[in-house]
Design a protein that fits this description.
With 404 residues, the protein is α/β, with parallel strands linked by helices. It folds into 2 domains: 217 residues, no CATH class; 159 residues, GMP Synthetase, Chain A, domain 3 (2-Layer Sandwich). Helix content is 30%, strand content 31%. The strands form 4 sheets. Strands 2, 3, 6, 8, 9, 10, 11, 12 and 13 form a 9-stranded mixed sheet that branches. It is globular. The N and C termini lie far apart (100 Å). It comes from Thermanaerosceptrum fracticalcis.
Length: 404
């Protein structure tokens, strides 16, 4: 009996012991921080993977000398591979990389404009099947310009371009005028019958503060910088066009993705003067209707903001003045939404999810029209109703010119 009890205890201890059969040493992994996918010659898949250089980063410097080299080394390396498939292109990188690429830390996925226009469905299969890629954290972008240039643009605020992109994404609520979308949501939109996917737009922009003074050999700042701007609209898996920053926020209003930003509109009674409202919170919902005239989509938006700047002598201590400002900045929000809807209907991309909202409310009717929705969407009527409210006016009521 004692032997049996000991055997049972031993078996239980073995079951509770944590194993390390699939352990991977950090020293043999190359942590991919950003990945770009492009089309190479003969329609080959071209992959650029950005991996930190641990020898440089370990020294605490932004630039160092790699052992065996005679010049300063960058704190990262962009590996490039080409092949008929994504996986084959990644394995091509193993011919020059001494570390196995590891994607659990990757947060940026960039499609070239050429790849996006031709269709991304074929390359998405690997991204969906991979157990390493974290689809909820990986943000999807379309590049204006060469992706390899974007991933090799230096910046004094971040050691790696990939980290710079991630930092900008974190502060998207400052304006809500660019639209990074998680890979999980991008894939979900592709699977829905009544909604098209969208992605953020990334580009290399000139740095206006980089000025070379006479006698200096180099500019004090890089001549170019990474910029996130606007959105790219898709029809199925093919990109059909871009939204500018104003149109992008119009899209985000409807999608409940506005996290903050500012609204600027003309100051009432003051020609050439402006009023600025800081967005505090907002929510929106879509209400589909079927009428004799056809399908109508009503977008209802509620927004609250703080008054942060007034140009000109405007007495905001008066309730009627605040009421007028509420009306004006509600109209400004409505104009952004209408502009975005017009552009999306022109491109034929229902990134707003109007079709999906219709399907949820009218499932039987949707079955009859879903095949024709790409032709129906450009002609539907979209109404926008905005209720805006100023919560706080700051430390000043009457401007100085009106206090006497």
């Amino acid at each position: 009996m004692k032997c049996r009890i000991r055997l049972i205890i031993l078996v239980l201890l073995i079951c509770l012991t944590a194993g390390c059969w699939d352990m991977r040493e950090v020293e043999v992994l190359g942590y991919v921080m950003a990945m770009a996918i492009d089309r190479g010659p003969q329609e080959q898949i071209r992959i650029i993977a950005q991996v930190p250089n641990p020898r440089v980063l370990g020294g605490g410097e932004r630039g160092g000398v790699t052992p065996g080299a005679s010049i300063a080394a960058k704190p990262y390396r962009n590996y490039e591979g080409t092949g008929p498939t994504v996986f084959d292109a990644l394995r091509e990188i193993s011919h020059e990389s001494s570390r196995r690429l590891f994607f659990a830390q990757n947060r940026t996925l960039i499609f070239s404009k050429t790849m996006a226009e031709k269709g991304v469905y074929d390359v998405l299969d690997f991204l969906k099947r991979s157990v390493e890629i974290r689809r909820g954290l990986t943000m999807v972008f379309v590049a204006r310009g060469e992706p390899v240039k974007i991933l090799d643009t230096p910046n004094p605020h971040a050691i790696l371009p990939a980290l710079r992109i991630d930092d900008i994404v974190r502060w998207r609520g400052q304006t809500s005028r660019f639209a990074p979308v998680p890979l999980s949501r991008f894939l979900e939109a592709l699977s829905l019958e009544g909604q098209e996917p969208y992605a953020g737009v990334i580009e290399v922009a000139s740095n206006p503060t980089a000025q070379v003074k006479e006698g200096e050999k180099a500019a004090p700042e890089p001549s170019s910088t990474i910029r996130l701007t606007g959105a790219a609209l898709f029809r199925n898996d093919r990109m059909v066009g871009f939204l500018d920053e104003t149109e992008t926020r119009g899209l985000l209003w409807v999608l409940n993705e506005v996290r903050g930003g500012q609204i600027v509109f003309p100051c009432p009674g003051q020609e050439g003067k402006k009023v600025t409202i800081e967005i505090i919170r907002a929510n929106a919902k879509i209400e589909p209707e079927i009428t004799e005239d056809g399908i109508i989509m009503t977008v209802k938006i509620q927004e609250e903001g703080n008054l942060v700047e007034v140009e000109g002598p405007l007495d905001v201590s008066k309730p009627e003045v605040i009421k007028e400002l509420d009306r004006l900045h509600a109209a400004a929000i409505g104009n952004e939404v209408k502009t975005a809807v017009y552009k999306a209907q022109e491109l034929g991309s229902d990134a707003f999810g109007f079709g999906e909202a219709f399907r949820r409310k009218f499932p039987r009717e949707w079955k009859k029209i879903k095949k024709d929705w790409p032709e129906i969407f450009p002609g539907i009527e979209v109404r926008v109703q905005v209720v805006a409210h100023i919560r706080r006016i700051g430390m000043v009521g009457k401007p100085p010119l009106l206090t006497h």
